[in-house]
Amino acid sequence: QVQLVESGGGLVQPGESLRLSCAASGLARGYYVIGWFRQAPGKEREGISCIGIFSGNTYYADSVKGRFTISRDNAKNMVYLQMNGLQPEDTAVYYCAAGRSPVMRPTFYDYWGQGTQVTVSS
User: Fold this and answer.
1) How far apart are CA 93 and CA 114, in angstroms?
2) What's the pLDDT tens digit per position in 11-31?
3) Staple 6 to which of 13, 26, 66, 116, CB 3.0 to 4.6 Å?
4) pLDDT tens-place string over residues 29-65
5) Is 48 in contact with 101 (CB distance < 8 Å)?
6) Rounded to whole angstroms, how far apart are CA atoms 114 and 98?
């Protein structure tokens, strides 16, 4: 059974950092990409980063490039999203998801976590 569980969200002030974690288990053969997405109230779900589990190749949306870093620890079945320089516009529910291709569009991902709230406010 596929399970993705996010953690690490919270309330921070502008300029601060957070590290999100995604614990992945039970992934079927072929699901070699973990992506991070976010969805703010009233907005569509946005792909922000993804990583090839075996290749280690990383991809970022322009909105987070240079501020966010995705990484993985295969021994622990974990994927992380280090978020630095957070701004109010980063406020959203953040999801991790498993897919087959490194495309940052929600429709390319079949398995999703429940999400973790990130709020950036002074």
Assistant:
1) 9
2) 999 999 999 999 999 988 888
3) 116
4) 888 999 999 999 999 999 999 999 999 999 999 999 9
5) no
6) 13
The Cα–Cα gap between 33 and 109 comes to 9
Residue with tokens 């596929």: 2
Contacts of 31 (CB under 8 A, 6+ apart): 2, 98, 99, 100, 110, 111
Sheet containing strand 68-73, edge to edge, reads: 3-7, 18-25, 78-83, 68-73
Task: Say how far apart CA 96 and CA 21 lie, in whole Å.
Answer: 9
| Beta-carbon contacts of residue 18 (< 8 Å; ≥ 6 apart) | 8, 9, 10, 12, 83, 86, 118
Contact between 59 and 104 under an 8 Å Cβ cutoff? The reply is yes
Q: Are 12 and 18 in contact (CB under 8 A)?
A: yes
Positive or negative torsion for Cα 56, 85, 45, 3 = positive
Residue 7's contacts (CB-CB under 8 Å, 6 or more residues apart) are 20, 21, 23, 116
With a CB cutoff of 8 Å and minimum separation 6, the contacts of 52 are 32, 33, 58, 102
